[in-house]
Amino acid sequence: MPAEIHPTATVYPGTVLGDDVRVLEYAVVGKQPSLARSSTASRDPLPPAEIGARVVVSTGAIVFAGSSVGADSIVGDQSCIRERVSMGDNCVLGRGSLIENDTTIGNGARIQAGAYITAYSTLEEDVFIAPCVVTTNDNFMGRTERRHELIKGPTIRRGARIGGGAILCPAVEIGEEAFVGAGAVVTRDVAARMVVVGNPARVLRQVPANELLQDD
């Protein structure tokens, strides 16, 4: 099936659209970035955006050039995927969420409404991000030249779950199948299959066996 592009949507030349893609009202696909002079993002030329089969790019969403969205994924209303982002198959990006540049999202990830995924982050397969989660990548908050070589977002391993309103500090690693409670502030790595809560986040207990992902 050919792609369905609403008359109010903008799809830039060269963009690759898979079969049965839907680009809804006022969505923008393949946009080139406009960077501030102080931006640390790469300024190399970007290839066209690639949108996999049966993807829905919802109303008002933006997918930048140089990014790819895997098959059967949904890019929610007014959400945004910046440049050089790789999103896997069967993912959900909730309304108003933002994935910043140079980030990798694994298959089956679920990112709920209003979440902020900072640049240079890694989310592995089947990660769950609850609404209004905030991730960070700069311990110096824009001050000093040293920050450029140290900027790094979180790494969230397979099947980990991050509760609503949690904050992940730069470069932390959330272990496989770990669980971060709502409102937690994670300042250090979280071991696999551990539940952490509070500010700063501390270990509460292990994730119960009946909550772990079942391998196929």
Uncertain runs: none
Could you state the oligomeric state of the chains shown? single chain
Largest sheet: 11 strands, mixed
| Average pLDDT rating | 95
Shape: globular
- In total, the number of strands is 28
- Return the structural class: mainly beta
Rg calc: 17 Å
Sheet with the most strands: spatial strand order: 1-4-7-10-13-16-19-22-25-27-28
How much strand? 25-35%
Protein architecture, described:
With 216 residues, the protein is mostly beta strands. It is 2% helix and 30% strand. It has one helix and 28 strands. It has one helix at 147-150, and strands spanning 4-5, 10-11, 16-17, 22-23, 28-31, 50-51, 56-57, 62-64, 68-69, 74-75, 80-81, 86-87, 92-93, 98-99, 104-105, 110-111, 116-117, 122-123, 128-129, 134-135, 155-156, 161-162, 167-168, 173-174, 179-180, 185-186, 194-197, 202-206. The strands form four sheets. An eleven-stranded mixed sheet has the order 1-4-7-10-13-16-19-22-25-27-28, with no helix packed on it. The longest helix is centred in the last third of the chain and has 4 residues, at 147-150. The radius of gyration is 17 Å and the shape is globular. The model has no long low-confidence stretch (mean pLDDT 95).
Properties at a glance:
single chain, 216 residues, mainly beta, 11-stranded mixed beta sheet, 8-stranded parallel beta sheet, 1 helix
Provide a compact summary of the structure.
With 216 residues, this protein is mostly beta strands. Helices cover 2% and strands 30% of the residues. Strands 1-4-7-10-13-16-19-22-25-27-28 form an eleven-stranded mixed beta sheet, with no helix packed on it.
